């Protein structure tokens, strides 16, 4: 199966750079001036940049009525709600974005961090790289620090200096996905596969792109290819499990999380994710067992206790539920003030440091 990806509306809008609050607007995407989606995006951005936030909100809301399953407009309205101090509306839009394309959650974090860095003058000092290994190490360190744009520049410099090495293309391609440059990510990851056909993670992230633009059959194909290449890698199964969860394919999602836990039984998030599936299918005893295992693995995570409290309440254990709720509140009080507001935005499933080591 093959498609002309450049004709896909989700692909075009994500790559268009017509989001509010972006610092860089270079794009390779061409739109027909008569395209309704493009016109909504352009008019909404124009209103936003003129500080006409109420008008921007109205335009993005109209676009959502016309294109209710397109995450781009929910993300744009999310930023507009922030400017209007509409926390409830922003929370709603963030949830819609997460349900339509999980990659947008990481993108929102990137945009807010970029705005914060600009406000406070965060600067990454330029480096000189004498070897390919040194450059690759510096680029990965920048990624771990959350400095996405500088890392892209480092990997781009490496490609110019050392050639189109599969590792550099892969690193840059993954980062392009995080900033919703689906157009550039697609090119880099396809080149990686041409250079190294057995590169499982390149196929995995191509699956992420296809999932984001609703080409679900192709996404499934690429996730399956990645698993065939790395059958003992729990991270690969986790990404496909999240894909199945989004499709509400609970049986397949459970199978993949079972495999994740078989391969890595010390990862609390796998038990948490599986417990939510057990709740969905009505197996509350199994959900309780998984949350209890997650508590043992991550005892300082307040959200796990709150989740277990809800399960206990459903099972009729009101005393246990109240005890877990109090533990959650105590942990939140202990941690309050340690993290800034950007840390409240969760990373999407699948963004794991292991990816950067391939």
Task: Offer a few descriptive terms.
single chain, 69% helix, 0% strand
What does this structure look like?
The protein has 358 residues and is mainly alpha-helical. 69% of the residues lie in helices and 0% in strands. The chain is built from 18 helices and no strands. The relative contact order is 0.08.
Brief sketch in words of this structure:
This protein has 18 helices and no strands. It is mainly alpha-helical and 358 residues long.
List the helices and strands and how they pair.
Elements: H1 9-15, H2 36-49, H3 53-66, H4 71-83, H5 87-100, H6 103-120, H7 132-144, H8 148-162, H9 166-178, H10 182-195, H11 200-212, H12 216-229, H13 234-246, H14 250-263, H15 268-280, H16 284-297, H17 302-314, H18 318-335
Helix amount, in percent? 55-70%
Radius of gyration from the alpha-carbon trace, in angstroms: 21 Å
Largest sheet: none
Uncertain regions: pLDDT < 50 for 5+ in a row?
340-353
Spatial gap, N to C terminus: 27 Å
Globular, elongated, flat, extended or rod-shaped: what is the shape?
A: globular
């Amino acid at each position: 199966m093959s498609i002309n990806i450049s004709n896909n509306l989700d692909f075009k809008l994500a790559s268009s750079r017509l989001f509010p609050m972006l610092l860089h607007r270079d794009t390779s995407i061409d739109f027909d001036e008569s395209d309704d989606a493009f016109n909504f995006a352009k008019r909404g951005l124009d209103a936003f940049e003129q500080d006409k936030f109420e008008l921007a909100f109205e335009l993005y809301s109209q676009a959502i009525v016309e294109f209710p399953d397109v995450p781009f407009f929910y993300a744009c309205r999310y930023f507009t709600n922030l400017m209007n101090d509409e926390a409830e509306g922003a929370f709603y839009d963030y949830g819609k974005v997460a349900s339509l394309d999980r990659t947008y959650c990481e993108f929102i974090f990137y945009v807010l961090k970029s705005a914060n860095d600009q406000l406070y003058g965060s600067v990454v000092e330029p480096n000189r790289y004498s070897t390919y290994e040194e450059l690759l190490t510096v680029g990965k360190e920048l990624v771990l620090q959350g400095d996405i744009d500088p890392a892209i520049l480092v990997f781009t410099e490496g490609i110019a200096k050392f050639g189109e090495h599969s590792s550099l293309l892969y690193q840059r391609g993954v980062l392009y996905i995080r900033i919703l440059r689906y157009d550039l990510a697609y090119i880099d990851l396809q080149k990686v596969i041409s250079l190294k056909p057995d590169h499982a993670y390149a196929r995995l992230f191509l699956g992420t792109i296809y999932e984001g633009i609703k080409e679900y059959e192709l996404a499934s194909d690429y996730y399956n290819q990645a698993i065939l290449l790395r059958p003992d890698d729990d991270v690969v199964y986790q990404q496909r499990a999240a894909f199945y969860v989004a499709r509400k394919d609970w049986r397949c999602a459970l199978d993949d999380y079972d495999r994740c836990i078989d391969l890595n039984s010390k990862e609390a998030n796998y038990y948490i994710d599986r417990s939510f599936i057990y709740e969905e299918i009505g197996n509350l005893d199994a959900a309780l067992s998984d949350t209890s295992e997650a508590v043992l693995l991550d005892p300082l995570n307040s959200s796990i206790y709150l989740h277990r409290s809800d399960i206990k309440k459903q099972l009729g254990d009101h005393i246990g539920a109240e005890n877990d709720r109090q533990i959650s509140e105590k942990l939140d009080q202990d941690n309050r003030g340690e993290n800034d507001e950007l840390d409240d935005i969760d990373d999407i499933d699948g963004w794991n440091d292991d990816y950067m080591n391939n």
